[in-house]
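User: Round two. Same drill as before: sequence, then structure, for each protein.

Assistant: Same drill it is. First protein:
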Amino acid sequence: MEENRLRAFLHCSRGWSGALDETELFHMAAKALQDVADVDSGFFVYAKKSMEGFTPANSTMHASWGVFSNIDESLKSLVLDDVLNRHDEGDPLLERWTRVEDMPNALQVMPRHLGLFEIGIWPLDCKGQRVGAVIVARTHIPPAPLCCATPTTLMDVCAAQVSLALDFLLAVQIADNASQQDALTGLLNRRGLEARLPHLLQECERTGSHLVLGLLDVDNLKRVNDIYGHWAGDEALCEIANLLCRIVRSGDLVARMGGDEFVVVLQTDKPDAYAAMARIQEAINSATDSLSLSLGGAVWQTTEGDSLESCFKVADARMYEQKRRKKTDQSQFFARYERAQNS
């Protein structure tokens, strides 16, 4: 085996775990294959894996080079379907170079069309599941033939290193998602809210809609905790979270900022925070007799606020004004809460 070439390839792969996403990873690996492994054509097939799993139908091609750069959609579909359905580790087309004349008839369409000399398919795995493959090819015999084991070993190393990097990217994604989620309710936390706001702002600019930020506080939650126990307070927070998710539209955001404070960010047709908050208040009142909220809202990018912090201040002031007006109705609130608990 040409030890120097293998060492050079391993050196190239050291930085793959630093890729920001799968696309960047595949481009890094493709460059290493071209520079070190003398592979003049290739591409990556990938069905993105998430915490919920992956769907082969969503697989796509990445980082194609050489003759595969201009592969048409019909041939691409043929390759994607065939590669992702090959799960047998003893498959004669997996993890080895194959001369064109030795390929199955169904796949010979691609080599004949592209003028390939030999082709290889190396599966890619993530967390123990097949998520894709790297498909490589040569259109000619290498001018300086390698030891017979070297081309296969280089591809073995490539597939293994890319699979490890995919595992790492998924782990980072899982950790990042967890850091943006409230542990009790499953809603976004402040970090998650801030991460998704730019996309929602762009959507509003595209559609000409307005963005309303609403701040919501559960009334008298401390007394609920003191009288009925913290489990009852947690149950109340989860109930509010579920109600809010049902009330808002699919593209809107719901977050728990901590304690008994929630935030909603809504796309609206009119720049009217009062109407948006009244709609949520009415929906909450209709859905539950045991809980009530104080709400305040502000319209983003108006005189009411042009940043998250400024909108928070306006919404917070309006929320506490409503809460102040409710102070005289505490006995009525607890009568409703007790009736609901005992029913």
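Second protein:
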Amino acid sequence: MVDSSTETNEQTAPSQEAPERVLAATGVRRSFKVGDRRLEILHGVDLELYRAERLCLMGSSGAGKTTLLNILGLLDRPTEGEVEVENVRVWQLGQAQRSRLRNAKIGFVFQFYHLLAELSALENALLPAMIAHSAATFRSKRAGYTNKALEMLTRFGLAERLTHRPGQLSGGEQQRVAIARALLLDPPILIADEPTGNLDRATGEKVLDLLFEEQETRGLSLLLVTHDERLAKRCERIVHMEDGLIQADSRTPIPH
């Protein structure tokens, strides 16, 4: 019989799982041919975004931020390097596979909205679902997607603007439509390139409040570009980019 008074109670330290990486750039370079010379924009960028993280990317004009975002959002191809979305190496996929993955996994909010002028607010919000399905399949699912888009647009304060085209909407209203469009298919990743840069301060604050509320409620991974340090401080992590390279990262190193 073992004397319980002499037993050693071992304390097992709680395991700390490494955060899940959802988006990564590794050694990404991008150059463009201008006349007889080649212009280097990105010089070997490494960047990781983690599950439910709110990351702000900052840097002066010409630092390469938008070029990097276009590559991470699968809108442009790097000259060298790799991009992974939820551990899938995207440039090893065919074009059709890559387009489907981008539409399902990444929502993109642009500074200048990029809404289609001939479509209503509701129709613009439905675009990702139209792209995701064949015409016949979309018709069969249209009611469900429409109800979802209506719920979002109403919650975003646009219940009276559903049939209005972009030219009939204010900048803040257009950006809210763009956010609804980006979120329609419940992507795990949201990329926002200066989403308040074309708005006045008060309107920009409201749009950013909406964006952060959706990010937190849905557990999205948000990659945000802004020049505004005041807005950047609302993010958990700030990365500074200059001359096509990451120069500083506020994240404490995370074990892998």
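Helices lie at 65-72, 95-105, 121-125, 127-132, 135-155, 171-183, 201-218, 229-232.

User: Perfect.
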